[in-house]
Amino acid sequence: MIDLPTTLLSVLVGLLALMSTEQPMATVGDDQFVYQTATERPPSEAVVAAIAAQTDDAPIAIAGEYGPLYEVVDPGALDALFDSSGGPDRSEGTVTFTYANRRVEVDTTGRVVLRPLEQEQV
Question: Which pLDDT tens digit goes with each residue over 81-122?
Fold first, then answer.
């Protein structure tokens, strides 16, 4: 049996609960995939859901193929950056990082932009 950290389990449980009720919007551009979700959804969940929507895979398959998100960015810290409950208003800002062979940009509106990593020229 695989021993998954509590953070990953909570992200997966949240994803499964939200997937049944939420109808996010996704648009595909020439060099990007834009996924818009509810602002109430934690950004760490939105990132995995966006990649799953782009690849037409289950969220758990994303972690299996590319490794868990927490190996690249701390999901709790990412979520806390955009959490305005009980603190200052976080109405603006973006975070950009690399995950699953993509450049991932998350903002406070629930938007996740995925861009392919540039192939290095030899």
Answer: 887 665 666 567 899 999 999 999 999 888 999 999 975 444
Rounded distance between C-alpha atoms, residue 113 and residue 34, angstroms: 5
Specify burial of residue 48 (Cβ count, 10 A radius: 0-12, 13-18, 19+): buried
| Model confidence, pTM | 0.72
**Are 51 and 62 within 8 A, CB to CB?**
yes
DSSP assignment of 51-93: HHHHHT--HHHHHHHH--GGGTS-HHHHHHHT--TTS----S-
Domain map (residue ranges) of the chain: 6-116
34 close to 113: Cβ distance less than 8 angstroms: yes
Q: What are phi and psi of 12, to 5 degrees?
A: -65, -40
Pairing of strands 102-107, 25-28: unpaired
Mean pLDDT lowest among 27-36, 74-83, 102-111: 27-36
